[in-house]
Amino acid sequence: MADMERVLDVYQRPYDPRHPVVCMDEQPKQLIEERRPPLPVRAGQPARQDHEYVRHGCCCVWMFNEPLSGWRDVRVSERRTAVDWARQVRDLVDDPRFTQAERLTLVCDQLNTHEIASFYKAFPPEEAHRLAGKLELVHTPKHGSWLNTSESELSVLSRQCLDRRLADINSVSTATTAWKNTRNEQQIGVDWHFTTEDARIKLKSLYPKIVN
User: Fold this and answer.
1) Number of H helices, E strands in the chain
2) Choosing a second label site near 95 at 20 to 30 A (CA), which of 7, 22, 127, 212?
3) CA–CA distance, 204 with 196 (Å, rounded to integer)
4) Tens digits of per-residue pLDDT, 32-43?
5) What Cα–Cα distance (Å) separates residue 201 from each residue in 93, 196, 209, 210, 211?
């Protein structure tokens, strides 16, 4: 329960550009090409799509979002290895948006790639040490990824943007960038209400019993 309470405590922090809180998550996206062009919508008739398609492997969609400001960034890569995670997080740390940040808190799940050690697999020791010093990693508990607001953002992205056939990584990148820009312009934030006190009441059965 300590991991859960730590995440909830982080979400209670007031907005501070010197210590921003960012959530991240990633998911695979299958690359699928149409074998035959779909038939467009006509009056009284929906669009029709052939059931046959061509697979072109998968890519990885990375989601970073700052819950309190209504900002998110979506990126696409070919893989989701430890090195890929390290590169994505370095781009986050060095983003011009966070030039005032002294230390960035990153909420993520407990994948074995989501560790400081991944920096040392991707970069020279000096650069890995610099990134480690700029980052506070906060992991969601096992089976508690619902605490990560980026999981909700990925769900919205999937429904509004990726729920269709896209044949290559460039198509996925173009689509997700357009979605990201529109959502950022609207400054859609995360209205999080679940607190540590709520968890101790609603999830009481998960806490250990103290026997006197």
Assistant:
1) 7, 5
2) 7
3) 11
4) 887 777 767 778
5) 36, 9, 14, 16, 19
